[in-house]
């Protein structure tokens, strides 16, 4: 079905060239995919899924439409084989393995239960799918999905999933509170305070697991020490952070993204409860309002996440290092739209474009969403992330000349230089 050279090219060009497992490996994709490929016996359906994954990625990365179309054709065949197996109720581990590979190709699909997980690779697949689903539907989770995400577990990845899930649920509650209920809102404000403490405690955990002092920042690259696809912007965010592995970097990225989403919720529930300003939003020195402080803290923490991206795009990291960067750039574009910080917004858009060039179609859709968001942020609230699938209407894509002309005319009308975009 597929030569070993093609799959080896996929592994070499998607994953970091030097892979060293560690206690802070957030993404198990390398272990899962390489483990599936090394299985001594594979069904034809699974062979097709492996071929589809390698060919579709390499086709997108190298702009090889012939290889991309071939990968998608094999993908469709594998879907048909999977459908037949499910129709016959011929359940097997290969069905789960095939779905795990499908999850690397497009929108993440999830199993309905984690019962009867019988091997480490199966356990890794379920945990990985939980995180990927949570991020793909962040702050827009259905009740069955929340129940699934909250199934008992342990470890750093489990703790991170619970923190992000609870932040997501609070954001949904804030969005549904059309009629203020001071008592209920005060209770939710208290939940925010407890959730902030959990964020801080988890930060201490990953600091200790990394061998750092609990309240320090990660180490930083010196000037000129790192060469990366996304150059460090010391004047915008500070020096780029240095990590021991992509998994370690991704823990920090996702936690700081969650911090960035949390503080606008403080302001929302404070407003609904008509309560005193919580300590985290008080600014006794400069006298900024709680809203200004919420925006400031959201931008501060997402700025820390941006300082992780140069590490993820340095030579040898390849495309896999940018998967979680999509969500960081997504939140950064949103945060800097509300603070009206054009330079940092543009940097986040360029980071998103780098994700597009790395082969992630989701980044292309999000980049279009946030171009529109910049010009009309008042149409969206600052405490809940927009759901990209729900707001994208059929229209020319951002690379289409007609769409680009529309965007650039809006920018020029506001006095922006469009030559560098």
TrEMBL record:
Organism superkingdom: Eukaryota
Name used for this protein in its record: Uncharacterized protein
Organism, scientific name: Penicillium capsulatum
């Amino acid at each position: 079905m597929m030569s070993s050279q093609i799959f080896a090219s996929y592994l070499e060009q998607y994953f970091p060239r030097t892979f060293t497992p560690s206690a802070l490996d957030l993404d198990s994709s390398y272990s899962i995919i390489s483990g599936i490929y090394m299985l001594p016996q594979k069904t034809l359906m699974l062979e097709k899924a492996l071929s589809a994954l390698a060919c579709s990625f390499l086709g997108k990365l190298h702009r090889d439409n012939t290889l991309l179309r071939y990968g998608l054709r094999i993908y469709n065949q594998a879907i048909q084989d999977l459908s037949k197996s499910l129709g016959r109720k011929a359940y097997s581990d290969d069905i789960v393995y095939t779905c795990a590979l499908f999850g690397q190709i497009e929108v993440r699909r999830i199993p309905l239960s984690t019962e009867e997980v019988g091997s480490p690779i199966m356990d890794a697949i379920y945990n990985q799918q939980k995180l990927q689903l949570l991020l793909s539907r962040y702050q827009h989770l259905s009740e069955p999905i929340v129940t699934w995400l909250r199934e008992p577990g342990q470890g750093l990845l489990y703790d991170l999933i619970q923190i992000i899930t609870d932040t997501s649920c609070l954001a949904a509650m804030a969005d549904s509170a059309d009629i203020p209920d001071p008592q209920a809102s005060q209770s939710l404000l208290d939940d925010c305070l407890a959730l902030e403490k959990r964020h801080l405690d988890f930060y201490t955990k990953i600091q200790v697991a990394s061998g750092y002092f609990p309240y320090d920042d990660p180490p930083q690259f010196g000037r000129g020490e790192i060469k990366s696809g996304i150059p460090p912007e010391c004047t915008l965010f500070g020096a780029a952070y240095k990590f021991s592995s992509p998994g370690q970097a991704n823990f920090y990225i996702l936690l700081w993204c969650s911090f960035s989403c949390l503080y606008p919720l403080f302001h929302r529930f404070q407003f609904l409860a008509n309560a005193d300003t919580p300590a985290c939003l008080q600014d006794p020195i400069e006298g900024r309002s709680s809203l200004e402080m919420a925006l400031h803290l959201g931008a501060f923490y997402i700025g820390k996440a941006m300082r992780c991206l140069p590490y993820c795009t340095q030579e040898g990291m390849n495309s896999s290092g940018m998967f979680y960067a999509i969500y960081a750039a997504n939140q950064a574009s949103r945060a800097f739209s509300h603070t009206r910080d054009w330079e940092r917004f543009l940097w986040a858009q360029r980071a998103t474009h780098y994700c597009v060039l790395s082969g992630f179609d989701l980044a292309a859709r999000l980049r279009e969403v946030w171009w529109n968001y910049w010009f009309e942020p008042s149409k969206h609230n600052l405490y809940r992330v927009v759901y990209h699938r729900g707001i994208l209407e059929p229209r020319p894509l951002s690379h289409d000349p007609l769409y680009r002309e529309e965007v650039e005319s809006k920018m020029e009308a506001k006095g922006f230089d469009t030559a560098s975009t």
